[in-house]
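Example record for the data management plan.
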Amino acid sequence: MFKMNMFLRLGVLAAPASLTMALIGCSSTPPRDTLAKAEFAIQDAGRSGAEQFEPELLTSARAKLARANKAVDDDENDDARRLAQEAVAEATLANAKAAAAKQAKEVEDMKKAIEALKEESSRQIQGQ
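Corresponding structural encoding:
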């Protein structure tokens, strides 16, 4: 019974220490994969036309990525990870909004083309 209680006590004491060590280990690792995802998301948004349709959002994503890279240089990896994740989110949103704006413009252009065809068709019918 004594051995069992001792093991339980050691387990209860060891669990927080293990958790603390795991958290320290996580925070000491630079978020290279998240930084790469942010860079890719920003490039993708730029290619999709976010520069034209959502420049403020794309600029904000770029600024957060720059701050994330600086945080890595300063060994502030938790801040770097958070900033990189925010950059990914903003770049992805800029990409989606740019795509929606482009589609809305295409719909508007199609409506104008249809209206022009209707007018041309009406003139041709009246001219006969």
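Summary line stored alongside the record: Residues 15 and 21 are 10 Å apart (CA to CA).
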